[in-house]
C-alpha cells in the first residue's frame, strides 16, 4: 500500500481524531454486508459476494439517500437483466453482433444517465452495465442466462434490502436536517453578499466565495431529491423548498446588475440613491432589527425615479432607475426566500405559504447537461468494451469476459468527471493494492475458518477501516476501490475453494479491463479543468443565442436555474485561472435576464412595428453564436454595429407605458453588460 495514503489512514484512524458519524456509517455498512452474505449463503445464491458488494455500493451517509439509491439500483438492475434476457438468446450464435448489441445498450443507458445529474441517473447507469455483466457472463452457457439474470437480481435485491434495513433502523441520519441547514446557509450567504454589494465591500470578499451561492443552490436541488425517501418524522414540502430556490436563484443575477450599475455611476450617485442603499443595507444586515420592513423598502425602490434630482444627466438617471428596479426585485426575492424558509423551519401548514411568498407555481429546475460530451463518453465506453470483446473472441481468452465487464463498469461509473483518466489510474492502483490482502485471506486465513462467526471476526478489522474511509469524502474513491476490489477478489462462496491460478488470471483480466478503459478515455474523452470551463462558457453563449432568436419568452425561473447551475460548475474550474470568474461567466446571467425582459415587453407591445427591436435581436443572436464558437470577443465592426443597434433601439423607445420602461431598462442593461467601456449615450439621443 502506498506510504502517503497509509500515513493518512493511520492519522485518520487515530483515537483522538475518530469521527463518530463515520464510525457509525462503517459499522452499519459492515453489519449490513454480513447480513447480506449470511442470507446469500443460506439461500444458496450463485454469487453471494454480489450481495455484499451491493451493500457497499448502496451505502450513503444519510438514510434517505440509501433508500433512494436502493430504489434506483433495483430499477436499473431489473432493466439491465431484461435487456440481457432479450439479447443473449437471439444473438448468442453471433458473438460479434451480441457484443455490439450489448455495448449499444450500455452506451444508450450511459447517454441517458448523463443527461440527468440528479441521483435518478443511477438507475440508467445500472441498467447499462448490469446488462453487460449478465450477458458476457452467460455466453458460455446461454441456456442458463435466465438463471444468471434471476440470481443477479436476487443478490442485488438482497444487498439493497440489508443496506436499507440497517441504515434505516440503526441510528439513521435524516436528509431533512442537512437540507434545511443548507437552505439557511444559502440564505445567510445571500444576505451577506447583498450587504457587501450595498456597502461597496465586494472587492474584499474572496473571489470564489462571492459566487458560492450558485453552487449551493444546485447542491440543495440534488440533495432534496432524497427527501421523499427520508426517515424524518416530519419532512418539508418539496414545492416550498423549490420556491425558496427560485427566489435565491434571482439574488445573484440581481446582485451582479446592481453592482454593475453602482460601478458605472461611481461618484456620480445621487444622495437619494446613497440614502436608499444605506436603508437597504441596514435591512439586509439585520432584518429583525431594521426599522423599515421589506414591503416599505420595495415601495421606495419602485418609486425611486420620482425622487431623482433634475440636474442629473439623463443617462445617469436611467442607470439609477435601472439599479433601483433591480434593487426592488432583489429585496423582494430575499424577503420571499426568508419568509418561506421561516415557514419551512416552523413546520407551517401549506395553507400559509402563499402569505410567506409562495405565489407562483414552482418551475422544475433544469440542470446543465452536455450532449456532446455524453456522446464522447459513449464512444470511449464502446471502444473499450468492443476492444476487449475483440481480443476475447479472437483469442478465446478464458477470462476475457471479466475484462469486458470491468471495462463497461469503469467506463460508466466515472464518465461524469471532466477527466476520468486520473481517477481510473487511482482506482486501478488501489485495486491492485488490495490483492495482497485478498491473497492473505484466501490462502492463509480462510483455510483455518470453520464457521460463519469466525468469518465475520476475520473480515471485521479490514472492512471496518475501509468503511470508515469510505465515509470520508477525501478518501472515498480509494476506499471504494479497496473495498470492491477486495470483495470481488475474495469471491465468497458457500463452499470454500482457493485456486491460485484462477485468482491471478481473473484479477489480471480486471486490471487489463481498467487499463483498456484508461487508454480509451485518455484518447477520446479527457478534458482539463480549463477545457471543461471553456465548454461551459460556450454552452452559455449558445443558450443566449437561442434565447435571442426565440419567438416566445422563456420562464425566468427556468432560465436562471440552468444558468446558475452552469455558473456554479464554472466557478471551481476557473478558480485556479488568472482570469476573473465574473469577467468570464457573469454576462450570461445579466444578458439572459435582460433578453427575457425584452421578450416580455414585446408581448405587451407590437414587436412587429418596432424596427429597432426587429433589427437588434437577430444581431444579438449572431453575436452570441460567434462567442459560442470559442472567440474571446466580437469583431470590431460587428461590435460597433451591435452597439449602434442597441442605441437605435433605445432612441426609439417611448416612456409612455410600463412595458416601454421595462424595455428601456433591459436595453440599458444589455449595453452596460456587453459594452462596459462604451461612452455614455448623450442626453439628446435619449427618448
Model description:
It is built from 26 helices and no strands. With 687 residues, the chain is mostly helical. The protein is elongated. It starts with a helix and ends in a 13-residue tail after the last helix. The chain is 72% helix and 0% strand. About 2% of the residues have low confidence. Helix 8 packs parallel to helix 10 and helix 15 runs antiparallel to helix 20.
Low-confidence stretches: 12-16, 350-357
Q: Which structural class should the secondary elements be placed in?
A: mainly alpha
Mean pLDDT: 82
Helix content: over 70%
Radius of gyration: 29 Å
Strand/helix succession: HHHHHHHHHHHHHHHHHHHHHHHHHH
Q: Total number of helical segments? A: 26
Number of strands: 0
* Sheet having the most strands: none
Give a concise summary.
This protein has 687 residues and is mainly alpha-helical.
Looking at this protein, list some descriptive labels.
687 residues, single chain, elongated, mainly alpha, 26 helices
Draw up the topology in text.
Elements: H1 3-12, H2 20-43, H3 49-58, H4 63-91, H5 95-114, H6 121-136, H7 145-169, H8 176-198, H9 212-224, H10 238-265, H11 271-285, H12 294-302, H13 314-345, H14 353-356, H15 371-395, H16 400-413, H17 420-445, H18 452-471, H19 476-490, H20 500-524, H21 529-549, H22 556-574, H23 581-604, H24 611-628, H25 636-651, H26 658-674
Amino acid at each position: 500500500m502506498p506510504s502517503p495514503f497509509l500515513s493518512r489512514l493511520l492519522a485518520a484512524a487515530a483515537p483522538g481524531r475518530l469521527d463518530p458519524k463515520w464510525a457509525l456509517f462503517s459499522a452499519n455498512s459492515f453489519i449490513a454486508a454480513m447480513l447480506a452474505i449470511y442470507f446469500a449463503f443460506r439461500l444458496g445464491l450463485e454469487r453471494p459476494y454480489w450481495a455484499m458488494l451491493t451493500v457497499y455500493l448502496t451505502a450513503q451517509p444519510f438514510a434517505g439517500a440509501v433508500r433512494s439509491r436502493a430504489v434506483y439500483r433495483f430499477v436499473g438492475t431489473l432493466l439491465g437483466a431484461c435487456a440481457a434476457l432479450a439479447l443473449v438468446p437471439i444473438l448468442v450464435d453471433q458473438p460479434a453482433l451480441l457484443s455490439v448489441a450489448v455495448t449499444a445498450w450500455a452506451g444508450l443507458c450511459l447517454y441517458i444517465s448523463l443527461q440527468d445529474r440528479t441521483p435518478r441517473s443511477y438507475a440508467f447507469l445500472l441498467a447499462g452495465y448490469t446488462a453487460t455483466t449478465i450477458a458476457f457472463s452467460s455466453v458460455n452457457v446461454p441456456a442458463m442466462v435466465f438463471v444468471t439474470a434471476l440470481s443477479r437480481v436476487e443478490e442485488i435485491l438482497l444487498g439493497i434490502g440489508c443496506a436499507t434495513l440497517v441504515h434505516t433502523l440503526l441510528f439513521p441520519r435524516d436528509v431533512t436536517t442537512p437540507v434545511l441547514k443548507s437552505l439557511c446557509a444559502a440564505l445567510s450567504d445571500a444576505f451577506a453578499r447583498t450587504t457587501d454589494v450595498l456597502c461597496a465591500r465586494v472587492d474584499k470578499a474572496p473571489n470564489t466565495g462571492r459566487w458560492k451561492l450558485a453552487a449551493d443552490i444546485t447542491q440543495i436541488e440534488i440533495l432534496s431529491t432524497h427527501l421523499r425517501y427520508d426517515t424524518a418524522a416530519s419532512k418539508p414540502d418539496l414545492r416550498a423548498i423549490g420556491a425558496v430556490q427560485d427566489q435565491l436563484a434571482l439574488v445573484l443575477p440581481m446582485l451582479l446588475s446592481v453592482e454593475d450599475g453602482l460601478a458605472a455611476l461611481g461618484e456620480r450617485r445621487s444622495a437619494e440613491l446613497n440614502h436608499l442603499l444605506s436603508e437597504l443595507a441596514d435591512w439586509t444586515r439585520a432584518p429583525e432589527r431594521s426599522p423599515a420592513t421589506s414591503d416599505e423598502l420595495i415601495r421606495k425602490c419602485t418609486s425611486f425615479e420620482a425622487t431623482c434630482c433634475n440636474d442629473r444627466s439623463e443617462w445617469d438617471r436611467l442607470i439609477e432607475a435601472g439599479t433601483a428596479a433591480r434593487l426592488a426585485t432583489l429585496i423582494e426575492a430575499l424577503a420571499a426566500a426568508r419568509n418561506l424558509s421561516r415557514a419551512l423551519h416552523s413546520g407551517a401548514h401549506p395553507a400559509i405559504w402563499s402569505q410567506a411568498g409562495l405565489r407562483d407555481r414552482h418551475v422544475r429546475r433544469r440542470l446543465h447537461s452536455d450532449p456532446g460530451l455524453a456522446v464522447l463518453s459513449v464512444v470511449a465506453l464502446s471502444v473499450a468494451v468492443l476492444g476487449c470483446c475483440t481480443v476475447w473472441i479472437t483469442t478465446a481468452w478464458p477470462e476475457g469476459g471479466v475484462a469486458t465487464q470491468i471495462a463497461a463498469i469503469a467506463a460508466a461509473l466515472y464518465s461524469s468527471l471532466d477527466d476520468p483518466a486520473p481517477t481510473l489510474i487511482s482506482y486501478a492502483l488501489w485495486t491492485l493494492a488490495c490483492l495482497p490482502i485478498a491473497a492473505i485471506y484466501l490462502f492463509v486465513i480462510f483455510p483455518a475458518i470453520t464457521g460463519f462467526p469466525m468469518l465475520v471476526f476475520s473480515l471485521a478489522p479490514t472492512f471496518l477501516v475501509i468503511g470508515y474511509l469510505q465515509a470520508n469524502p477525501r478518501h472515498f474513491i480509494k476506499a471504494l476501490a479497496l473495498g470492491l476490489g477486495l470483495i470481488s477478489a475474495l469471491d465468497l462462496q458457500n463452499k470454500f475453494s482457493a485456486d491460485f491460478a484462477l485468482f491471478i488470471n481473473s484479477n489480471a483480466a480486471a486490471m487489463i479491463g481498467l487499463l483498456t478503459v484508461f487508454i480509451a478515455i485518455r484518447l477520446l474523452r479527457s478534458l482539463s479543468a480549463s477545457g471543461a470551463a471553456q465548454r461551459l462558457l460556450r454552452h452559455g453563449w449558445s443558450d443566449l443565442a437561442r434565447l435571442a432568436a426565440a419567438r416566445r419568452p422563456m420562464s425566468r425561473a427556468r432560465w436562471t436555474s440552468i444558468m446558475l447551475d452552469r455558473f456554479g460548475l464554472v466557478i471551481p474550474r476557473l478558480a485556479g485561472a488568472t482570469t476573473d470568474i465574473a469577467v468570464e461567466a457573469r454576462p450570461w446571467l445579466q444578458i439572459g435576464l435582460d433578453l427575457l425582459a425584452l421578450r416580455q415587453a414585446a408581448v405587451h407591445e407590437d414587436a412587429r412595428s418596432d424596427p429597432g427591436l426587429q433589427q437588434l435581436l437577430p444581431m444579438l443572436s449572431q453575436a452570441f453564436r460567434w462567442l459560442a464558437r470559442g472567440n474571446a470577443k466580437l469583431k470590431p465592426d460587428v461590435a460597433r454595429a451591435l452597439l449602434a443597434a442597441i442605441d437605435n433601439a433605445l432612441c426609439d423607445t417611448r416612456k409612455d407605458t410600463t412595458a416601454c420602461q421595462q424595455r428601456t431598462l433591459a436595453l440599458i442593461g444589455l449595453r452596460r453588460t456587453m459594452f462596459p467601456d462604451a461612452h455614455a449615450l448623450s442626453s439628446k439621443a435619449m427618448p
